[in-house]
């Protein structure tokens, strides 16, 4: 399965990311590597529940990962 992931730079440092296809699915990390490591667990948890999210702000980038 491939998902598009919106990665944001956090104002306080580090990163946070969300999956537009899975509303409410988000995670964070102090480094980009930590963010990606945390993201697999977040996607797994989000796929098991139904939640809602918010639109991505302007300072964002979209990446694609395979889970």
Structure write-up:
By secondary structure, the protein is of the alpha+beta class. The chain has a single domain (2-66), classed as Double Stranded RNA Binding Domain, CATH 3.30.160. It is 24% helix and 34% strand. The chain contains 1 helix and 4 strands. It has one helix spanning 32-47, and strands at 2-9, 15-18, 26-29, 60-66. It has a 4-stranded antiparallel β-sheet with strand order 3-2-1-4, with helices on one face.
List keywords for this structure.
globular, Double Stranded RNA Binding Domain, 67 residues, alpha+beta, four-stranded antiparallel beta sheet, 24% helix
What is the structure about, briefly put?
With 67 residues, this protein is of the alpha+beta class. It has one domain: 2-Layer Sandwich (Double Stranded RNA Binding Domain), CATH 3.30.160.
CATH topology: Double Stranded RNA Binding Domain
How many angstroms does the end-to-end distance come to? 6 Å
What is the CATH-assigned architecture? 2-Layer Sandwich
Overall residue-averaged pLDDT value: 82
Describe the global form: globular
Secondary structure: number of strands? 4
Biggest pleated sheet: 4 strands, antiparallel
Task: Indicate the CATH class.
Answer: Alpha Beta
- What percent of residues adopt helix (DSSP H or I)? 10-25%
Radius of gyration: 11 Å
Give the SSE map:
Layout: E1 2-9, E2 15-18, E3 26-29, H1 32-47, E4 60-66
Antiparallel strand pairs: 1-2, 1-4, 2-3
């Amino acid at each position: 399965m491939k998902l598009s992931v919106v990665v944001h730079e956090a104002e306080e440092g580090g990163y946070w990311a969300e999956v537009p296809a899975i509303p409410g699915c988000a995670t964070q990390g102090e480094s980009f590597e930590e963010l990606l490591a945390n993201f697999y667990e977040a996607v797994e948890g989000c796929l098991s529940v139904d939640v809602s999210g918010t639109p991505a702000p302007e300072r964002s980038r979209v990446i694609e990962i395979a889970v």
